[in-house]
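Let us work through a complete example step by step.
Step 1: write down the sequence.
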Amino acid sequence: MATLTSLPDELLAAIFSDVAADVSAGHITTTVGPVCKLFHNLIQSSGIDVHYVFLLGVDSMRAFLAVILSRKMAQRRVHSLLIVADHDHRHSRENPTSDASLVRTLQAIIVNINPSLLHTLFMYSFSNNQDENLTLHIPISLPALTTLCLSGFVVTSSSPLSSLQSIQLLRLASLDEEYRNVPRLVVTLAPHATRLKLTFRTCAGAVATQPVGYLNEFLRATLLRKTGRTIPQFKNFPQSHAFPDSLTQIVLHCPNPELEDAHWGLMFTRSLQVVLMRAWRLLAEPLVLLSFTDEESEGEKQHVEELVEEWMQMNCDSKMM
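Step 2: predict the structure and record it as tokens.
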């Protein structure tokens, strides 16, 4: 009678690839790999062990980089990648891993994987400087990438990521001058994006660096295009926006202005909320979502847990589709 181990390697690899996609069940090297030497060797030789990768910490990032550098490109096909890039504080509090070194390691991983099947990229950084964002440059083409979620980063790319649909830039301190033109940033990075999410560490960072103004432009232009109507507060404003035409929703999240005693920010964001409520009555689904957190600090641990949960859920969902 035929057994699983008697199946052709090609068929076993197809089965194991499907198993690996369900990251909630555990990593393929700990679920199927230990069953027997044949399975262990096949998972490694076919590169299935790097299809879905979760790296926690600088040491695991460097170890993973060493592994993929030792392999042929065909064994480096990463489908989905989550990196929680905390700094290595165990050796010296006075000399933790620098932000620049951290970014170089992240870029080295991106450059050295086989990117042809990478559809999901999540990264989280514990920055040494909480008043600044890290800047991640993607120097290669990622033709299959549809979902990008970066927490603590702003991002640039050498070429447009044409398949990218969903962009999340989370825990931003503010936006430096060169990145404050949010529509241009999105168009350059992802000309066919459908969803954009921005979250800020402070309300002042969100309001003072212009994203709220771009939300207004997007809202009034899209509302006019979809319904042929506008809102009285918008009638004297230009009825156009510079985001990709494919964009269907923008989410902006920041701390409650009341907690920061930011009265001007409170007035500005509250007035936008009133306009949003009126716009929603004219639309089947919201174009712009503006939300606040009432907690002064949700904490790094909670942010990481939410990011990991979202990444795992996305991969479970993609397996079922």
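Step 3: interpret the result. The chain has two domains: 1-49, 51-320.
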